[in-house]
Amino acid sequence: MREEEKQVNYRGVNLLREGLELPEVSLVAIMDADVEGFLRSETTLIQIIGRTARNVNGKVIMYADRIKNAMKRAIEETNRRIENSN
């Protein structure tokens, strides 16, 4: 991947992770969710999952070979927030 493609890709991921409030977003797919690191930490996963929070039909699909700690904690925190909002 060329350097400029990496920068565009990073900016796109960063916007998805932290930035835009898009109520139309109803599906987010997280590829390689089990590859822990900067873009797959518990906090980052929660932020990405939160992109669907404004849509009543929002869904998140995490593709992974196995459930890692960051994924498990992000799922637990998301479920806790859903329960507290009802």
From TrEMBL:
Domain Helicase C-terminal as annotated: residue spans: 1-86
InterPro entries membership: Helicase_C-like, P-loop_NTPase, UvrB, UvrB_YAD/RRR_dom
GO MF: ATP binding; ATP hydrolysis activity; DNA binding
Pfam families: Helicase_C, UvrB
GO cellular component terms attached to this protein's record: excinuclease repair complex
Signal peptide stretch: none
GO terms under biological process: nucleotide-excision repair
Protein name (database record): Excinuclease ABC, B subunit
Organism phylogeny: Bacteria, Thermotogati, Thermotogota, Thermotogae, Thermotogales
